[in-house]
Design goal:
The protein is α/β, with parallel strands linked by helices. It folds into two domains: 178 residues, Rossmann fold (3-Layer(aba) Sandwich); 101 residues, Arc Repressor Mutant, subunit A (Orthogonal Bundle), CATH 1.10.10.10. It has a seven-stranded mixed β-sheet with strand order 6-5-4-1-3-2-9, with helices on both faces. α6 packs across α11. The longest helix is centred in the middle third of the chain and has 17 residues. The protein starts with a strand and ends with a strand.
Amino acid sequence: MKESKKMVLVGPAGVGKTSIFNSYFEMANPKTLLDDSLEPTRGINSSLYSLFNSHFGIFDLAGQENDLWFSTSQDIFKHSNLIICIFDVMNSLESIISFLIKILQIKKRLHLSECKIITFIHKIDLVEPSYVFHKIKAIDDFFISQYHRGQEIDIYKTSITEEFYFSTYSILGEILNLLFNQEERAPIGENELAYIKNEIKMLLKMEKEVYYDKKNLSREFNFKMDDVTSHIDRLLQINFVQYNEVLNSFKLTERSYFFKIGLEKEFSNVINNDFERNIESFHIFLSLNKIIA
């Protein structure tokens, strides 16, 4: 295994850190997460994955215990490669800036010169786009003009709702891709590229709540039966299809339907570079495997 990577999710209580973690890394159903409030995280919720022949650890920190995480006696941020600060879009500008200053101070104290600081302004579905734009601009303006650290914080707009699920998926894929250098990232081979394109083709054509058996899929897409089996196994791995034992058939999950909605929008005005980036994100999440202790 190559050098391990460490990502920390931190932010105020109730902003949606654990929902992001569960939806994108634990492959949970985003609709369920939106409909049923999660119990607050206590302490540290962590998981270890393999990605690009490396270990990749994610640490989701309880927002109620930020005073502990920020104390000089605490070293949870030590050796971090990436710190994602997550805020509810309705958090005050002052509280967001104050929080980010503390993170930058921790970065300096622990000598995390190579650690990337990223900010998510989350739950953007709750407000008008102009509100999000002005809030992000105000944060950028402060760090550029007052704190002179604006270049260290990249800010993204996120949400796990149906309308924004795919864009957030792409953001996380892009971030993970950048976390690993070119030598660590395995290039997508021709066979893998063809597989991904076929799976995207399947997702675009499969309809919600419709069950398909392998023979149907083989005829529909002109795939060999062995290839259909491989595609289904891969989509099962990322919880994009679910199996019905009684019918011996498959249908899209709610998670894949959220993904599909955004994918369809991308295809309506796709640019080659954007399409390639989406393929990279899809490849990364297919390659992400949880390590069970």
